[in-house]
Amino acid sequence: MALLELRDVTRRFGDFTAVDAVTLSIEAGEFFTLLGPSGCGKTTLLRMIAGFDVPDSGQILLDGQDIAGTPPEKRPIHTVFQSYALFPHMTVADNIAFPLKMSGKMPDEIKESVKKALEEVQLSRFSQRFPHELSGGQKQRVAFARGLINRPRLLLMDEPLGALDAKLREDMQRELIHLQKEVGITFIFVTHSQDEALALSQRIAVMNQGQIEQIGDPSVIYGSPANRFIADFIGKINLMEAHVTQISGQNMTLEIDKLGTTTLPFKPGIKTGDQGVVAIRPEQVGVHALASQAELTHAYTGKVLDFLYVGDVTTYIVELDCGIRMEALLANSSPGRARFFEVNDPVVVSWLPEAAHFLMD
Questions:
Q1: Residues 264, 262: Cα–Cα separation, whole Å
Q2: What residues does 250 pair with on adjacent strands?
Q3: Domain identity same for 42 and 20
Q4: Separation CA 151–CA 354 (nearest Å)
Q5: Same domain, yes or no: 165 and 202
Q6: Which of 117, 212, 342, 352 has its CA 20 to 30 A from that of 311?
Q7: 326: CATH
């Protein structure tokens, strides 16, 4: 039995449906992320799991028991917010101890639990400081420690790293992964950051307009998106309008607008005449000198329109002879400043057949 099950959960605000018949299950000990653009319903869904909002229909089952009508303080669930929500007049230790005091734990038990929690988040030497004396990352670790102090069944996190700068955010991501493995508690994480979801999660549910578009581990979500929305939302991708002209055995032939005919591995459920897009990730597009064309498959000529050097990779924008623009990433693995091609250089772009996916609209 899954730790948490949502069955056809729906929440409306007037004529607007924020969450539309969502069904999913989350296992004990899992790091599960709700990912999607602003307004897709992920925070509303999290609020219903926490008990801050009530579904109009459907069931929320924790350990097989429907908790949809249980008030938040009676649920074995804690929530960590982006704003930290720390008490400014309390020390770090007192902030962390607060849930245990509210539940009537004995002073000796509270002291020992707080000591352990401070060690888990590496804040032992900050126990007597007040929130205004802490950095953003330290405040966030206090919020995590307080959320975990009485070992809830679920820890819910609503954009908890959103207020941190890029470097600190990356450090906190590593700490969160370590912390979740250390305590073994189920984490449900809400974010609109694709990179954050891919880095942290064991499984991701991608939401759009109140519904779940796809659930899977990060490599599946990124490498085999279920539809055009997910492909376009998760990371960078090249999308080319296409339709299926023929299906033969394990292959299917597509006509890509402006580019011409190409052959891809057959995908179940696709039939002749289907409209969609051919999707290819930039890191799977090769850029080569013209002399390499004869050795390549799925190769098309064009010229470098622009490029962006960002340290570890260079992003090239190539305009093909047919007018299509493609993005390609080349790793800067050699010492010194990497420069493969210049603007207006004639080049060939290519990709392997298995790198391309045909996605329905």
A1: 7
A2: none
A3: yes
A4: 45
A5: yes
A6: 352
A7: 2.40.50.100
Domain-embedded: residue 348: yes
pLDDT for the residue 172: 82
Whether residue 241 sits in one domain with residue 221: no
Domain co-membership, 27 together with 103: yes
Q: At 80, phi and psi to the nearest 5? A: -110, 125
Distance of CA 279 to the CA centre of its chain: 19
Place of tokens 């499984």: 203
The answer as to whether 358 is a domain residue is no
Q: Is the pTM value of this prediction over 0.85?
A: yes
Residues of the chain with pLDDT under 70: 294, 333-339, 361
Percentage above 90 pLDDT, the chain: 61
Question: Do 251 and 273 sit in the same domain of this protein?
Answer: yes
Give the range of the structural domain holding residue 184, as residue numbers without chain letter: 4-228
Backbone torsions φ then ψ of 159, nearest 5 degrees = 45, 50
* 42-97 pLDDT per residue, tens: 999 999 999 999 999 999 999 999 998 899 988 999 998 877 788 999 999 999 99
Q: Give the pLDDT score at 334.
A: 64
Shared domain for 289 and 269, answered yes or no, is no
Strand ranges for the chain from DSSP E:
4-13, 16-26, 31-35, 57-62, 65-66, 77-81, 154-158, 186-191, 203-208, 211-216, 238-248, 251-256, 260-265, 275-280, 286-289, 299-309, 313-320, 325-331, 346-350, 357-360
257: Cα within 13 Å, side-chain hemisphere: 11
- State the pLDDT at residue 169: 83
Look up the CATH number of the domain holding residue 121: 3.40.50.300
